[in-house]
Structure formats: C-alpha cells, structure tokens
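Subject: design request, 249 residues
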C-alpha cells in the first residue's frame, strides 16, 4: 500500500497497458481516474479499481482537444481536490513506410502520442505545483531509443515518442525544485492480447532481437509505474527507463 491516499490519473486507462496500470495503482492504495474514449472499457477498469476499495472516476474526452481535456481535468479536481500521480499512457502506433507516408498519418501520430501528453500534463501540472508535490510518468517507447527496429515503418511513431522523451527531460528540469518529478518508461514489445496474432515466424523474429528472448509483461510495467509514483522515488526525475529485455543496449 505504498500509494495509500494518493490520487492517480491514467490516460488510455481502458487499453491493454493502461487497464493493468490502473488496477495496480488501486491495489497499492491509490484512488484512480481514467481517461479514454472507450466508455465500456472504462467501466471494466472501474470495476477492478473499486474491487480494491478505491474511488474511481472516468471521463471520455478527446485527448487531442485541449479544451475537452481541461474540462475533464477540472471536473476531476472539483471532486477530488488534487491529483498526485499522472500516468500518460494514451497513444498508439501506425505502420507506414516513410516515403509513402501522408501528412495526415504523420500529424495523427504526433497528435495521438505527443500532443495528448502535452494537453493532459498542461491541465494537471498547475494543481501539482500548487501542492508542491506530484509524479508525472510518461509512456514512451523503445522505438524512440532504438529507432523502431522491432517494427519497421514506425518512423512517425518513433518521432512522436522521442518527443515524449524530450518533453520528459525538459519538464523534469523545469519543475525539479517545486516538488514534482517527471519520468518516462520506454517499453519494448509487451505480452498484450494483440501479440496473440503473431505467427510463429513473426514471434521468432521478434524474440531474436531481444537479448532476454522474452516479451515484457504489463504487470511488470505497472509495478515500475508504482515505484516511480511512490515516496521513495522523490529524488528520481528526468529518467527514461527502458523495459525492453535489453533490446536498446
């Protein structure tokens, strides 16, 4: 119960990673709010949070719309009075060879994976600064570190996630003396339900690029989020932590 009494906001909370993270935060004692366009998915996550005896709040704003995000965050703050932990987990990749990529594909990837982080963090940060305490944790990607060798054609996604890393480091410096830490995780391939569609050949090729020859597990990523959100991480900021089985070495 390292997060007893903390108030956490998770974006992309209905997703394969976000749902596990939200449940783990609740298991460690945090009240959890989820932002996601998938209302049905949020209901399922909410049930898991409540099962741990924690409060749950959900909203479905378009995270690329700054006005909608601000309204959703203001609604949460009005109910809970503050936010202690922000997990920016919303996003998603698209495969397109660079020489065939349209401006629309590029812009969509930047908006989904970088602008959403800006919008939500910008809405939440003033409350953290006012209480002089907060943990911001951004989900980047090994693609931003290694160039996307695990998935070819991920140029726009890798560029957006590299932007998340740059934002993480610069903001960490900006707010370091005001009680707020900012860190990022850079997961590699994860054992999410989508990976079940891999052919044996695709799985073997994937594992050949990972020194541990193992996919990451969402529950391990979630426990790392808890570590960065916990009191003992008060002096850890500006860190980009790969969770990739050694792929980025």
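Subject: RE: design request

Done. Sequence follows.
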């Amino acid at each position: 119960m390292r997060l007893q009494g903390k108030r956490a906001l998770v974006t992309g909370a209905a997703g394969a990673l976000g749902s596990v993270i939200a449940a783990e935060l609740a298991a460690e004692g945090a009240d959890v709010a989820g932002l996601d366009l998938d209302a049905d998915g949020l209901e399922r996550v909410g049930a898991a949070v409540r099962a741990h005896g924690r409060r749950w709040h959900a909203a479905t704003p378009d995270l690329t719309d700054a006005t909608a995000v601000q309204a959703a965050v203001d609604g949460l703050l009005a109910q809970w009075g503050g936010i202690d932990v922000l997990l920016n987990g919303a996003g998603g990749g698209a495969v397109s060879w660079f020489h065939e990529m349209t401006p629309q594909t590029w812009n969509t990837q930047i908006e989904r994976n970088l602008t959403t982080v800006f919008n939500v963090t910008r809405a939440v940060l003033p409350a953290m600064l006012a209480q002089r305490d907060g943990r911001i944790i951004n989900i980047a990607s090994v693609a931003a570190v290694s160039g996307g060798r695990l998935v070819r054609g991920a140029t726009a996604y890798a560029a957006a996630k590299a932007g998340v890393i740059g934002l993480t480091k610069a903001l960490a410096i900006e707010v370091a003396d005001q009680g707020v830490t900012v860190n990022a995780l850079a997961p590699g391939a994860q054992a999410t339900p989508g990976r079940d569609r891999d052919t044996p050949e695709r799985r073997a090729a994937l594992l050949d690029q990972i020194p541990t020859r193992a996919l990451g597990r969402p529950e391990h990523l979630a426990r790392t989020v808890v570590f960065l959100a916990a009191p003992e991480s008060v002096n850890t900021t500006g860190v980009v932590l790969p969770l990739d089985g050694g792929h980025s070495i």
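The beta strands are 7-11, 31-35, 56-59, 85-88, 134-139, 180-187, 240-243.
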